[in-house]
Amino acid sequence: MINIILIDDHIIFGEGITNLLSLNQNFNFIGFYSKTEGLDEIFENNRIDVVLLDVSVIPINGIDYCKYIKTKFHNPKVLFFTMHFDDLIIGRAMKAGANGFITKNNTKDVLFEGIEQIMNGNIFYSPDVEKILLKQYKHEEMKGLPILSSREKEVLELIILGKTSHEIADKLFISTKTVEFHRSNLLIKFDAKNVVDLTREAIKMGIVKINN
């Protein structure tokens, strides 16, 4: 049987996937966790074959956590399972050591196939992820400027100006939690550890310009 854990910060979604995986006789579902902290003991006490991992988990984002578990433990297979995807995030996830990348828009059959494929030593992408990769890069190395949504650009500009999450939320009429979500995604897309790195990279790439 394939030993699986799920790490996702959406509780209701996670509970649904837990029930789904638990019903499959080929899988031994070990647990669902909403944060990437305090899980070392789980890996040390169990042979984890597959980690289903979201990108936007806390306190360590999914991409950095993938790097961590790949080096610290017995190299478990990592299948990113997320609603957040573009070519840059997909590329960084795979460079972090992921074995596959699927989106939450897919059916359970795609999820099950992804788990089985990576266990057989293959790289697996869901059909919608394949379309993105083929359209944008056609087998070329993933590189280039981060692709930002209009909202991410607004949040980035305000972060560069030194605004707090609360101030950004008030300015854009969105919740603080939404701002934190965009902030986390921006750090991932720019491969930045903190706001200082984020600012430096955004200016260096010419995405944000500082007026003299």
Report the uncertain regions.
137-142
**DSSP summary, beta strand count:** 6
Helicity level? 40-55%
Strand content: 5-15%
How would you describe the oligomerization state of the chains in this entry?
single chain
* Structural domain count: 2
Strand order of the largest sheet: 2-1-3-4-5-6
Mean pLDDT: 86
Modified residues (4-aspartylphosphate): 54
Domain Response regulatory: 3-119
Keywords: DNA-binding, Phosphoprotein, Plasmid
Protein name: Two component transcriptional regulator, LuxR family
Detailed description of the structure:
This is Two component transcriptional regulator, LuxR family. Keywords: DNA-binding, Phosphoprotein, Plasmid. The modification 4-aspartylphosphate is found at residue 54. Helix 7 packs across helix 9 and helix 8 (165-172) packs across helix 9. 32% of the residues are buried. The chain starts with a strand and ends in an 8-residue tail after the last helix. The protein is of the alpha/beta class and 212 residues long. The chain is built from 10 helices and 6 strands; from the N terminus they run E-H-E-H-E-H-E-H-E-H-E-H-H-H-H-H. The longest helix has 14 residues, at 176-189. It has helices at 11-22, 40-45, 62-72, 87-95, 108-119, 127-136, 150-160, 165-172, 176-189, 195-204; strands at residues 2-7, 27-33, 50-53, 77-82, 100-103, 124-125. The model is unreliable at 137-142 (pLDDT under 50). The protein is globular, with a radius of gyration of 18 Å. Strand 5, helix 5 and strand 6 (124-125) form a beta-alpha-beta unit. It has 2 domains: 2-136, 3-Layer(aba) Sandwich (Rossmann fold); 150-204, Orthogonal Bundle (Arc Repressor Mutant, subunit A).
